[in-house]
Amino acid sequence: MKINRLLLVDCDTKTNCLNEKRIVDSGLVDQLKVTLNGGHALLYLNQISHRTVDSRTVVVLNMNTPIADGFDFLEGYKFSHDIHKENVLIVVMEDNINKDTQDKVRRYGVNYFISSSICLETLNNYINCYFEKNIDTKQVVFGTSDTVKAENLPKQNFGETPQNKNHSKSKKHNRKVLVNIESVKRPGAGAA
């Protein structure tokens, strides 16, 4: 199953280059983004949250990154209300993960693990299992007893949202940065 984007979170540039080349060459993803720590990954996901509504995103997360590690990412992800989590698969990338760390990660709802030399077959199996399961059971809960199938909901048109002219300069600047970040093309990774 082809996915829309993969976010590789790892501080090892050599491993990133190898994994990035293998993933792009496999044709598994339309778009690949590399971040060096969990904080940058969370910022990126929040910035593209409007794009995760009708797309599939995979986060391959190294738990041992500097500044903001994998647990910082998982904690921030848990409380983020902008990200459409049913469309995001998180796979922990760790070579020698101990049972305590694995149990702690599972408490965040992450049940997929892979080595740092990513086996594309294993990753593809995780993707197929996760997204096929979520396609079959995707529901939006409005109350304690009312549910509506997500495919029957009207799609929100983000392009026609009225702009409030009282935004501060920093919010306008952030919007410009968002556009600039997402309009950059990575060589061989497809359109951003």
SSE layout:
Layout: E1 3-9, H1 13-26, E2 29-35, H2 38-47, E3 57-62, H3 70-79, E4 88-93, H4 99-106, E5 112-114, H5 120-137, E6 139-141, E7 147-149, H6 169-183
Parallel strand pairs: 1-2, 1-3, 3-4, 4-5
Antiparallel strand pairs: 6-7
Helix pairs in contact: 2-3
Describe this structure in words.
With 192 residues, the protein is of the alpha/beta class. Mean pLDDT is 77; it is low at 138-192. It has helices spanning 13-26, 38-47, 70-79, 99-106, 120-137, 169-183, and strands at residues 3-9, 29-35, 57-62, 88-93, 112-114, 139-141, 147-149. The strands form two sheets. A five-stranded parallel sheet has the order 2-1-3-4-5. A two-stranded antiparallel ribbon has the order 6-7. Helix 2 (38-47) runs parallel beside helix 3 (70-79). The chain has one domain (3-137): 3-Layer(aba) Sandwich (Rossmann fold), CATH 3.40.50. The two termini are 20 Å apart. 26% of the residues are buried. Helix 1 (13-26) links the parallel strand 1 (3-9) and strand 2.
Based on the coordinates given, report the CATH architecture. Answer: 3-Layer(aba) Sandwich
The string of secondary-structure elements, in order, is EHEHEHEHEHEEH
Q: What integer value in Å does the Rg equal?
A: 17 Å
How many structural domains are formed by the residues?
A: 1
CATH topology: Rossmann fold
Termini Cα gap: 20 Å
